[in-house]
Amino acid sequence: MTTHQTFCRYCHAYCPMLAEVEDGKVLSVKPDTSNAMYGGYTCIKGRQLVEQMYQPARLTNCLKKGEDGEFTPITSNVAFDEIAEKVKALVAEHGPRSIATYNGTVAFQNSAQLVYSRAFHNALQSPSYYTSVTIDQPAKVFVGSRIGYWTGGSHSFHDADVVLIIGNNPLVSHYAPPGGVPSVSPADQLRRAQKRGLKLIVVDPRKTELAKRADLHLQVRPGEDATLLSGMLKVILSEGLQDHDFCEQNVAGLASLQAEVSGFDLADVAMRTGVEAALIVEAARLFASGPKGTAITGTGPEMGAHPNLTQHLVASLNIVCGRFYRAGDRLPNPGMLSPPSPKVAQVADVSVAWGQGERCRVRPDLGELVTPGRLGPAREMPTAQLADEILTPGEGQVRALFVIAGNPIMAWPDQEKALAAMKDLELLVCIDPYISATAELADYVLAPKLTLEREDVTLLSDAWYEKPYSQYSRAVIESEHDVIEEWELYWAIADRLNLEINIGRSVIPNQPKPEKFDLLKAITKGSRVDLDWLRDNPGGHIFEEVVSEVQPAPEGAVSKLKLYPDGVEQEFAELRAEPGLNADFPHLLIGFRSKYVLNSFGHNLPALKKKSGTTNPAHLHPADLAALGIEEDDEVQIASSHGQISAIVKADAKIKPGVIAMHHCWGLSPDKQGSVRENGANTNLLVSSETDTQRYTGMTRSSSIPVRIKKSA
């Protein structure tokens, strides 16, 4: 038996593991307690990697759907030949834009997939590139570009005095934006930080695992995050608690922002948010006291009402309180897998991230999201509009879709429209280890290599670590099956269509077929850590010797962080005009994470299914149940202005009265019949992709949904 140092790729946390192998088979995985960064932490999902590989439901060969609607095995090479021919024909008939990609959440865990597939789309000249980012958090990118960036970097969790976390629960999700509780052993990180004196403020409609450990918990009414933040900013600015020197030197529009928030009467803010005025004042003063700290959001507020303004106000809190590293400060992690670049105490103006380049056919007011990256701008289109791009005839209509490690029928807003779109395609290719609801409709289902069958590097999380850290993992075993890596689909088509693939300044030849290590070398070219060394030295590494100090701004630097750019005035007007609770739909439905599954991924793993159950309960406060005459375990109907679902009720005193909480991505396809007790319900049936979408990003409101609830007959 041999033991291999590797790391989990079930989610973004990348926890180090030891895999024990005998006769080409993985016997077990366990925490790598020798890893100084993680300290032996793993979660229950990651500990199912062996079960994931060897369970009977896993696909170990590629499938093709016949004219009778049944799948039959096909070799990957034959599938590549046929798919490439279909792509060639569709491009000839409909143009390159007709070929689209959707990368689901799990696609981000393969360190070559996103970069290579984007390079393929560039070579094909197809802008039809989509990811899960535009479903749940595009405001982070858009707002950052609209305000500008402080190139010296924002304060980190490890040296923060106070942290404000809004709608994020990293103790369960194992994900937080930089500055929040790190995904690396989050409970231990939080315990150690609070022991040294960190003050934690949590804003969430639920008393989450994180909220239970907070110094202050503001149990906000869903959709009113922007109102609450406006109230906090009013307190800070009216009491002069801002960082005056930083604002004077580096900020524009402060007077206009202060004039806007001054109109938020704290009594009115308290009434709208359901948070006592005294608690709002206490939170504002605590956050402003710092002196170091940060405010962040999770997907909760970003999927709800007013996400652009909410994110803008969070950024404004950080800006007015000066939550940035200054000249002479040492950055905790400059990033090991990107080239060294100077960190300077100044503001960088950048192009607005949305609306540049290609436009949506069905919504010409919307365009590409442009994210800065190590290899240049990364572009993608708004996923909420993709179903209409498929269903709407005309030049550039999407006719082929590659679904990579995702499940659109479960994840996209407006579930019935998503189903119709999948059925309307001329070519649907899914790369999935199981027959998901979307894969059932595919023309081809390609079986992928799983975590322990492929090599990877901690590319996605490189900038999120609190210390300079990296790990490379070789493949633990070589698969005996005809399974592929996701990026290989794009290589196969590029090879057959003679497309030139460029990653950064490197041309990636189609022949001979590139090695993944060579792709990763091109992606990380010029990085601080040598990839050959990282591959040849197993395990995770902290590079304490790497020091990056923030440099002074050059003379004549004049750019400012913009607190009142174009669009903000209208967003405030929309917030003020918010009608409040609707008598016809008096409850608000929110989503929240499960520690046992990742969206729709993991429902079929026995240990996780045993923990998570088979249904998706509607969590309500006991007082709401009593008022409605509903008892725990009753079946209810939950209706929005767009649709209706059935659910089983669960009493939950941790949730704010007036709120219903359910997990995302459960249930069946709308054309399937099944018991809600056995399958749960999909909340995307309640969501329209046409109404209540966000300006600039096109994102659909998928949380804080106004609904009514009644007991099933």
Report what the structure shows.
Helix 3 packs parallel to helix 18. The N and C termini lie far apart (59 Å). It is globular and about 70 Å long. 29% of the residues lie in helices and 19% in strands. The longest helix is centred in the first third of the chain and has 19 residues, at 76-94. By secondary structure, the protein is α/β, with parallel strands linked by helices. Strand 6 (99-103), helix 3 and strand 7 form a beta-alpha-beta unit.
Count of separate DSSP helical elements: 24
- Distance from first to last alpha carbon: 59 Å
Share of helix, binned? 25-40%
Radius of gyration: 25 Å
User: What is the count of β-strands?
Assistant: 33
**Which consecutive residue ranges, at least 5 long each, have pLDDT under 50?**
none
Structural class: alpha/beta
Q: Indicate the proportion of strand residues.
A: 15-25%
Shape descriptor: globular
Averaging pLDDT over every residue, what do you get? 94
Largest beta-sheet characterization: 7 strands, mixed
Order of strands side by side in the largest beta sheet? 5-4-20-19-18-6-7
